[in-house]
Amino acid sequence: MSQSSAYIAAISNWDGLEYVAAGVHTTKDGTEGCYNDYCPGFVIANGSNLLPGQALAPLSNYGGEMRYITIRIKKDEKTGDWSLYREDEGGTIGGMTLLGWWPQSLFKSLSDRANVIQWTGEVNYQYNETGPSMGSGHFSDEHEGKAAGFFDVCGFDSSGLKYIYAYRPIPLVDKSYCYDISPWYDPDFNYPAVITHHFFYGGPSGCSR
């Protein structure tokens, strides 16, 4: 794999040795990353209209129509499996669709609960190359309609209730001169006009290590 770009939602334990992740992953040279049903262990739901690994279409247009999908990872309290759901805004699927699940038997610490939730954009490339774009290819300060973002970001407890964040999530950026992240917009704290918890991220291609 020479270059790849992804946005991912992940849950894990504290040591990072066990985790499940879902999102969108692309590679410049068309090789496969292990973010879909080619990975061993993921079970595809019977009759699912959507499959991990499918291309998203239609896409958002810079400065034009925006397209949104909802990804949810949820622990089944009866089976202990971690289930993956997806919904497309304005689509014909109707409600959250179960795509599949990671069986409880795959995990040790995650068989109980997740301690960490992450929402990330990432790129990978070799040392002799320049990096691909992240998100829409534009920096986070261009905001909605131009920069990529995560919206209505939240966690749920075992009863299905949304978390009330006691602390803001911690932003981590390792190459801020190439790719960046916006402030965490939070209706519960300093942004009363904000409707949902969200942030923007991304940057153009051409970054070098």
TrEMBL record:
Species of the source: Rhynchospora pubera
Neprosin PEP catalytic domain sequence ranges: 1-208
Name under which the protein is recorded: Neprosin PEP catalytic domain-containing protein
Species classification: Eukaryota, Viridiplantae, Streptophyta, Embryophyta, Tracheophyta
Domain of life: Eukaryota
